[in-house]
Amino acid sequence: MDFSVQELAAFVGGQFAAGPSVEARVHRASSIPEAGEGDVTFYTNPRYLPALKTCRATAVLVPDNFTEPVPPVAIRVADPARAFAELLERFAPPPVAYPPGIHPTAVLANDAEIAEGASIQPHVVIEAGARIGARTVIGAGSYIGHGVHIGADCHLGPRVTVAARCLLGDRVNLHSGVVIGGDGFGFELAADRHVKIPQTGIVQIDDDVEVGANTTIDRARFGRTWIGAGTKIDNLVQIAHNVVLGRHCIICAHVGISGSARLGNHVVLGGQVGMVGHIELGDGVQVGAQSGVGKSAPPKTVLLGTPAAPIHEMKQQYARVARLEKLVQRVRRLEEAIKTERSTPPAL
Amino acid sequence: MDFSVQELAAFVGGQFAAGPSVEARVHRASSIPEAGEGDVTFYTNPRYLPALKTCRATAVLVPDNFTEPVPPVAIRVADPARAFAELLERFAPPPVAYPPGIHPTAVLANDAEIAEGASIQPHVVIEAGARIGARTVIGAGSYIGHGVHIGADCHLGPRVTVAARCLLGDRVNLHSGVVIGGDGFGFELAADRHVKIPQTGIVQIDDDVEVGANTTIDRARFGRTWIGAGTKIDNLVQIAHNVVLGRHCIICAHVGISGSARLGNHVVLGGQVGMVGHIELGDGVQVGAQSGVGKSAPPKTVLLGTPAAPIHEMKQQYARVARLEKLVQRVRRLEEAIKTERSTPPAL
Amino acid sequence: MDFSVQELAAFVGGQFAAGPSVEARVHRASSIPEAGEGDVTFYTNPRYLPALKTCRATAVLVPDNFTEPVPPVAIRVADPARAFAELLERFAPPPVAYPPGIHPTAVLANDAEIAEGASIQPHVVIEAGARIGARTVIGAGSYIGHGVHIGADCHLGPRVTVAARCLLGDRVNLHSGVVIGGDGFGFELAADRHVKIPQTGIVQIDDDVEVGANTTIDRARFGRTWIGAGTKIDNLVQIAHNVVLGRHCIICAHVGISGSARLGNHVVLGGQVGMVGHIELGDGVQVGAQSGVGKSAPPKTVLLGTPAAPIHEMKQQYARVARLEKLVQRVRRLEEAIKTERSTPPAL
Fold first, then answer.
1. Last residue of some domain: A45, A73, A91?
2. pTM of the model
3. Mutation test of the interface with chain C: which of B121, B138, B161, choosing the one with the most C Cβ atoms within 10 A?
4. Alpha helix locations (H) across C77-216?
């Protein structure tokens, strides 16, 4: 992008106080703490007001009612976040386009079916019986196992693995390094050794799911590990065998979900949450970061802590533990009072 | 599989009440919560009884003494889990076979030694001095470093890295995305900068070890990082330099073990456990999920929490913390009683 | 290495008591718990004294003032750790050299610029507009996206992804499986569905940064996710969009840093630490393993626990919680005392 402040204000439909800086040029979008000369930024969260007061950006989009004096030229708009998002979209570099076709270095089984408009990038391997849907991109170095079915308009980043027989819907987005369909972690102890329990099921991923870099989703012991439509999974998440996630869930980075756990729709798990197996979280359950969930919870519950409890209880508990020293002091005073009481003859 | 209920009962050697449904056909195995028409499932855990009472499966394997009325046809067997496992094994799709030979797209050093029956999949790289044992499969896109020795009957999934000089025994199973032999994380602070400490050791993995997808095991500072025979490691685990794991351990997903820690045999670490470096856990130690282990522990200890303590102490501690509000109220009542005591002249 | 004990002592400039073992030969370096015949080890940490007393090493480097009788020949030096490190360096296998040039199986865009001395290993993909600096090694199977710039003397292990437009300085070291520039995890809820917020920024990694195996660093929503010079990141770490790390930080394994968090210089995060987004840690802040950081902290703070607090407070809190049973007993005694007090007529 390359704008004068005046042109920028016109683009976002904003108001600004006239001044000498209106001819200054803006060519980049940045956050408040990072912005320098030539940058436009935006302000909505009061947490960033101190930073804005020393910000070296050339211009800042602010809410209509913002009146603080700040170094950048303040351009007032109804919704600064939305106006900034529109700017970004307008000036973002175009997304990389992967032209249709099969790269000559890709290795495809004779009976692999590649639909029209699909793009098979270099060094991809597609095994027997696999099907790739229309306009789907398979990133460089990815491995698509025997009998895998992938829908239309999917995007697999470089170096993704989808192992045998797993199923992906349409518009599924797998980032680089994702592993779908590794064996579930199941062993039986026999004569002091762990004997592998065959993991003969699959992973099924429904439409519009996104899976972050290096996340792993294991195949089921039998039947399927199942990710519902519209669910979004962050990086480095572990989803064990036979787990079922509902639709439109949000699973943050480093979450670990143990075998056969079930989540309803619109469940949100914060970063580093752990869940034991064979439990169920109802629709709309939310779990705070780092919590350890050991029991099922009804719809809409908000959980926190290890072992996880309803968030208001856990916050009270944190507060009580932090005040424990005061409680100890109160007990000490009581002990002294009792002692005095006992050693003093009652006043007559 | 495709059975009538009657044929199914015969196959598992089970009893069922005659009725019109005995001709209904079963063609899939599912868990209770997922099962629908045409599915067979099994029941052992009373936790699933409510789900079984509304289950739409066609048939369910139940224990001999099970008498509850449930929608599916109940087939009574001595051990439903075992009977179900046999069904699964009998009807599982055959595991993918990778025929012996070296794919023409693989890049092998002249002096790499590939034993008879080994299968080197597409786009594999095998460096100088490496040796691959008989019948071992090296998955597509894997990288086998200089001087690596891999035993017989191993299976490396697609996109595995085994870096220079690391050693694998026989029947080792590495899932997709595993990285063996990255540098240990060792630096020395010199004049405010971190200077890398050379990591010149190796990783040694003994027979019958399984390592889950995207797990990382770092090479030793010197000597070896060592994984004992029969140990099973889940996905996304981090094992640091010079760690030693004994035989037949179970290490669940997202565990992090810091440098030079040592585990005995048959140690079990739950998901997301963290261990500081230079400590030792004796044979048969078990650590609950998400615990943070900061000290060595003798054989057979069962630990929980952060900082980890013996599980019964930690469970009592959790209970005491949960009851803290009651303790505060008791102290408040005592304070009021003392106050009354003091302001009331003793009864004469 | 292959030494007599006498030659070894000469090499490290150490003193030893003469005896029959001085002709024994040493050919390997090991840690105390692992050392056997033919090994040299070293001793500095009293924690290892019991192990040293039963150690089967042939020789051990010990401090000048060490006088305990131990089985190995004790060679006294001023700084055993340093002398041992010199031994290791002298006898370490030479690091693997990757000769300059472009492997014929690599797939390079016509306009990719590869500087002199760079080594492009087998099955690498380098997209249009990318530039690779002098003497940089791109490991087998790595993917370098459109417009990526990588400096000189970098080392990328096998199977690394650097996605479109990301920037790497000089001497950057990315271990196998690293993913730089996956999309940030950003969605907006619209009519009950999560709509992807375009992630149009980049990742910028400055000089001398090291990143461990399978770590993921997401591209910015806009602007850049930025890793300062000299910072070292361990395996399986997640760094979200728009995070800024200062210079010379140490980030241990499994750490998760949420979006737009900012770290100063020389910050140290222990293993499995989690940080919420939009907070700032000042220069020199240190955070203990497994902590959950929910608030900004001024320079030099040392934090521990979840929610994280200054370490001395948190350690006191742990101690108080561990002693909670004693507090309960004290309260019980007080209750009994009060009861007695009340039921006993005052002594006259």
1. A91
2. 0.93
3. B161
4. 80-91
